[in-house]
Amino acid sequence: EAGVAQSPRYKIIEKRQSVAFWCNPISGHATLYWYQQILGQGPKLLIQFQNNGVVDDSQLPKDRFSAERLKGVDSTLKIQPAKLEDSAVYLCASSAESTGYTFGSGTRLTVV
Amino acid sequence: QKEVEQNSGPLSVPEGAIASLNCTYSDRGSQSFFWYRQYSGKSPELIMSIYSNGDKEDGRFTAQLNKASQYVSLLIRDSQPSDSATYLCAVLSGGSYIPTFGRGTSLIVHP
Predict the structure, then answer these.
(1) How far, CA to CA in Å, does B29 sit from each of A22, A38, A48, B52, B107?
(2) pLDDT of res. A40
(3) How far is CA B2 from the centre of its chain?
(4) Which residues does chain A have within 8 Å of residue B45's beta carbon, measured at their own beta carbons?
(5) What are the two backbone dihedrals, phi and then psi, of residue B72, each rounded to the nearest 5 degrees?
(6) Per-residue pLDDT at A95 exceeds 90
(7) Closest in B46, B103, B104 to A100, CB measured
(8) Tens digit of pLDDT for each residue in A31-66?
(9) Most B CBs within 10 Å: which of A37, A54, A95, A108, as the mutation test of the B interface?
(10) How far apart are the C-alpha atoms of B61 and B50, rounded to whole Å?
């Protein structure tokens, strides 16, 4: 079974620039999540999709972050404009009903 | 606010010893509990899940759950240097698909 695919693996941008991350979940996993993990902290949920609908985006900073999952499969997360405090690893995870998460390898973002 | 508390460590144990990692949670309605291992620079990897009170063993790993005390732990027997990682506790409330993660405990197993 192929895992959760994410790209890019690393990204360095200047503050106020924009950036986008891509995630392709495990085939058949209806639920997709984007997490932000700041160094030394546990993952924090940004947004949860069920198929192509948003289930929970209460912790997504909507003034600068956006996410979509148009066809209910892969998803993109965008930050515009980026701030220094957005430096983190952005993890995508997917799950099927009653299973645990499978995380992707993450995208390490550095904002300078 | 659902909270999951872990001591950030680091917890240092000698090779061959038992490592004991602890986690407490605030939501009494929590139903599912997970332990993830995260190597430096890598994504979290699920190693144990537990749903009912008591112990669950899988190889060198034992998860222990006490819902009355709102406490879940992970024991690693015969610790190896390759077990050195951060261990994240995640708690899922009933009816939710969104676990709350603790900040993780750093484990160092020294030869």
Answers:
(1) 34, 27, 21, 13, 29
(2) 87
(3) 17
(4) 103
(5) -135, 140
(6) no
(7) B46
(8) 999 999 999 899 999 999 998 899 989 999 999 999
(9) A37
(10) 12
